[in-house]
From TrEMBL:
Cellular compartment(s): Cell membrane
Keyword annotations from UniProtKB, A to Z: Cell membrane, Membrane, Transmembrane, Transmembrane helix, Transport
Primary residence: membrane
Entry keyword Cell membrane: yes
Domain of life: Bacteria
Membrane topology, record value: Multi-pass membrane protein
Matches recorded under SUPFAM superfamilies: ABC transporter involved in vitamin B12 uptake, BtuC
InterPro entries: ABC_BtuC-like, ABC_transptr_permease_BtuC
Presence of keyword Transmembrane helix: yes
Name this protein carries in UniProt: Iron chelate uptake ABC transporter family permease subunit
UniProt family annotation: Belongs to the binding-protein-dependent transport system permease family. FecCD subfamily.
Transmembrane segment boundaries: 20-41, 72-92, 104-125, 131-150, 162-181, 206-229, 250-277, 289-310, 322-339
Organism for this UniProt entry: Arthrobacter sulfonylureivorans
């Protein structure tokens, strides 16, 4: 990962900066439209007049007003989870210098899933509010284990060692989890609803539990743009620039763990958001993480909320959960991006 990954000239860097500055207001406008669609659209059609009245003169006895208000926590959950996954995915790709990095590479999803299974099987947890803390603890513990294993040896936590340790731990934890599920039908039934990945059915109580963690994770990770830019040049170059590589990776990894753990805890494992969005952003901003991170925070919730809206219309009168829809949308988009750009520079 050499310096050739950075802007090839000062002129190219200025063009990327101008493009990024212009794109932020446009991204905010599109995000606002997507949020409006999330509140207004669904299996039950709501007229624009009724939609406005639901906010200007809310009537609890009006079913349409109640439907609109019931979609607010669902939309807020999509915004929070999308922002967390987008920023975490971008930072994870930067700290691991791996263009295919996502919450699975650090064992986050596997750790969270195993902890939820343990909560159901051992402690009899049946409510989503109880899953949250097990999922968060499992995600954090798995990431710490991966980083600890990868840090062993003289070279420390290199990108290759992080990927190998994450893959090995994910395989082990998943095997242990499925060995429990196949022997206990009740645990399997309770786990299936969380595993599919969804932003529906999440109330303000759950949002209130998770939002502070996501806020802390976003603040911590958004300020690592310069760190990730230096790491993208290689460890030796980063050390030559005066950066403490091990500490930098640890700080960034902490932000990633907080974001992934919180997002996975409330919504379940949602694929492709943290993988696809950073690649889309690089097409607009170039390789500068000072732009990639904030753009990922805007575009990822756009994708997740839009996927949730699409899922409401695919199989009426039922719905397809957002975790399934993001995979359906994200897979072909990612293939197109890879074929178009050949190799994304990190």
């Amino acid at each position: 990962m050499g310096s050739g990954q950075q802007s090839s000239s000062p002129g190219a860097g200025r063009r990327n900066t101008r493009r990024a500055l212009v794109g932020i207001p446009a991204a905010l406008m599109v995000l606002a439209v997507v949020c409006f669609a999330s509140l207004a659209l669904g299996a039950r059609p709501i007229s624009l007049e009724t939609f406005i009245q639901a906010f200007t003169g809310f009537d609890p006895s009006n079913g349409d007003h109640a439907v609109v208000h019931s979609r607010i926590p669902r939309t807020v959950t999509g915004l929070l989870v999308g922002a967390a996954l987008g920023v975490a995915g971008a930072a994870m790709q930067g700290v691991a210098r791996n263009p295919l990095a996502d919450p699975g590479i650090l064992g986050v999803n596997a750790g969270a899933a195993l902890a939820v299974v343990a909560g159901i099987f051992v402690f009899g947890v049946t409510q989503l509010s109880g899953y949250i803390w097990f999922a968060f603890a499992g995600a954090a513990l798995a990431a710490v284990l991966v980083y600890g294993v990868a840090s062993m040896g003289r070279e420390g936590a290199t990108p290759v060692k992080l990927a190998l340790a994450g893959a090995a731990l994910s395989a082990g934890l998943s095997s242990l989890m499925y060995s429990v599920l196949v022997t206990n039908q009740d645990t399997l039934e309770g786990f299936r609803y969380w595993q599919v990945g969804s932003v529906s059915g999440r109330g303000w109580d759950l949002i209130g539990q998770v939002a502070p963690f996501i806020a802390v994770g976003l603040v911590l990770t958004l300020f690592t743009g310069r760190i990730l830019n230096n790491l993208s040049l290689g460890d030796d170059v980063a050390r030559g620039l005066g950066q403490k590589v091990a500490l930098s990776r640890a700080v960034t990894a902490l932000g990633v763990v907080i974001l992934c753990g919180a997002a996975t805890a409330i919504a379940g494992p949602i694929a492709f958001v943290g993988l696809v969005i950073p690649h889309m952003v690089r097409a607009l901003t170039g390789p500068d993480y000072r732009w990639i991170l904030p753009y990922s925070m805007l575009l990822a919730p756009m994708l997740l909320v839009a996927a949730d809206v699409v899922g409401r219309f695919v199989a009426p009168p039922g719905e397809i959960e957002a975790g399934i829809t993001t995979a359906i949308i994200g897979a072909p988009v990612f293939i197109w991006l890879v074929r178009r750009r050949k190799a994304a520079g990190l």
